[in-house]
Amino acid sequence: LPISTTVDVLICGTGEYTTGFVHNSGSKSDKKIGVVGLSVFELRRLGKVKEISIVGTTGKKYPLIREHLRKNITETYNNLDTSMKTFPQDDVERNPLAYEEAIAALVPGSLVAVFTPDDTHFAIAKCAIEHGCHVLIAKPAVKTVAEHTALLALAEARGVLVQIEFHKRWDPIYVDARHRIRGLGDLGFFTSFMSQPKFQLETFRAWAGVSSDISYYLNSHHVDFSCWALAGLARPVSVSAIASTGVAHSPPFNCQQGTEDTITLAVRWQSLLSASIGTATYTASWTAPRSDVHSQQRFYCLAAHGDVTVDQAHRGYTCATDSTGFASINPLYMAYAPGPDGNFAGHHGYGYKSIADCVEACISLNAKRVTVGVLDGVLPTLRATLPTTAILEAGRRSLDRGGATIQLVHMGDGAIDFALTC
Questions:
Q1: pTM for the full model?
Q2: What's the pLDDT at 31?
């Protein structure tokens, strides 16, 4: 049989990150036309993706979504094809299990991109893996180490790729910073801050504080960066967490009572070479005011022989208009401006590249040109991101126990367990 040079893609989730469509209109965020859908449409134009389908829980949204995509993508990018097979049917009010039918319609070796609330990742990914499909999951992969290791065992048994969409691993500044950090000796101190404006709680109200929290949603980025930068050099040994409340669960947002506004994780890292201890704090908030950027994102790292500072939100590029005011621009993430030929030209963007590289990996795996074991050292796979999930879960465990310190117990086989410090 001829070796296919394309892969079919099912997009799970119809919201902001996939289509840019939220609450019956375009998103107010910096992702007004989405990331995943646009990237996959472009990859189809380039001959990397063949069939595209999408699944949500409500079919009645699709006429509006199709019009949104036609107006904002097809008409912007030289008639870029945005057609997709949709699940469930347009007349369905709600079917939270529609993904089962959508996955069953795929051929094994297809890619299932899961961009749904955090507490749904495990069931959808498990269904896809059991069908013989590769999976791309929005960060965080899942919320617990138990679910993470269960998916890992299943994926390795089926020989499929499961990649986590930690797109900061494609950010050229973060890539360079990682390289420098790895050459500066033992970690002394790391601190990061990441936020989104509080109006985003209007988008997140259905799940914020219910199925996940702001640490899983935003701290996951810099926790994963630390795990990636320190891989083979140090390991996390304990986590404690503190949080503030008051805004998210109050009017006009009215999220579930007790929903944390801001969460800080304090993590102790132990050098694998010297056994010395480094400390790190990771803070994330979704109650920031509107500002010149949609998301404040920065970190500082102090190591034995130097330090590194990154302000991901401010790249020295600003724009002010009468309609939108002053803004700091970051086209290194998603460059939405069309190229001279009218086509999408954001192939350098790390939001696009994280998806494109996953598609390329799936094609190579299906053609047996590479193995998942090789990709574990290249991409943020399930095996490569287990410590990230462990830190995030330990943070949640700590919050649920009033800020108690949670020990991370590293097993000889690479597994991680938890112990409560009394």
A1: 0.95
A2: 66
